[in-house]
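Demo today. Your pick:
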Amino acid sequence: MVDLQSQYARIQPQIDKAILDVVSSAAFINGPEVKTFQSDLEDYLGVKHVIPCANGTDALQIAMMGLGLEPGDEVITADFTFAATVEVIALLNLTPVLVDVDPNTFNIDLESIRKAITPKTKAIVPVHLFGQCAQMEEILQIAGENDLYVIEDTAQAIGADYTFSDGSKKKAGTIGTLGTTSFFPSKNLGCYGDGGAIFTNDDDLAHTIRGMVNHGMYKRYYHDVVGVNSRLDSIQAAVLRLKLPHLDEYCRARREAAKYYNAGFRDNPNILTPVTEKCGEICDTCDCHVFHQYTLKITNGRRDAVHEHLNDLGIPNAIYYPVPLHRQKAYLDDRYKEEDFSVTNALSDTVLSLPMHTELEKEQQDLIIRTVIEAVEQS
């Protein structure tokens, strides 16, 4: 699904030197590379504070801890996403409230958010799924009307831009109260292990979270808040610092690959290609989507057969996600009614993700396109 070896080969000398420099310095935790990467990412995102941490799941958990959410508080998020988003809500003894998503963008549905709000609701967690920004302007309006926090799950969308109705832009993850991201190796900006970060423009909140990621300490052995051990190590920071200047290039390459896929599948009525919230088609100005995943909908009931056929031929593909969160054993809840998740249920039966990375070649895509179409059209 991703070609990390070829990506590494393009910047191998710089990466190797940076890693060896960290080893030579022995500054493995909170070393200069972490501080430099933090500053560079703040500049790139246009955000006041980046707080690095150990992984994207920790980033979500620490964000909620930093907001002071208490057991029983309700947090609204999308049913169609990876489990980490809801996992941390449950871990903190908060109450997850899952809602349906938009059938075209796969992002959280605005009307479903409105219907789910109760006096116990304290936060909304929009997930910028597969690399496309959720409808943040409207989500901020809903949050403002109901005095709610907004925590952006940007694990799949770092580098994406969101354009407001007045034409102004902000980077995904810098729009809500807090943003979080993952630097898992397969992400658009990935390290060579685990890593994550939290973003905010709130000085007080940033101060609180900086202590939380380091056992609640601001001064060594003085614990002012309840914290966790969640730090980005210096080797991962060194890798990320070198890859960050390439992020926009990586995102452009993914968009070009997505456009090529879309053109190849365009004439098949049983294959629905990704669309963007901004203008429907993927165009040269579609910076709202960075295509962490390229996800089709196979609409003639043959998704599973296509999946198996590709597997048989050794062509990478994946189903993100085969089981909605509201049906997962860990998150079953009598409050949920199947009719409230009609879109998510349908997506779980139809979506199929294809290889998407910066090193994709047209010949590879031609083979994938041809094979998918053949499998879809088999009787």
Summary: The radius of gyration is 21 Å. Residues 247-265 form the longest helix (19 residues).
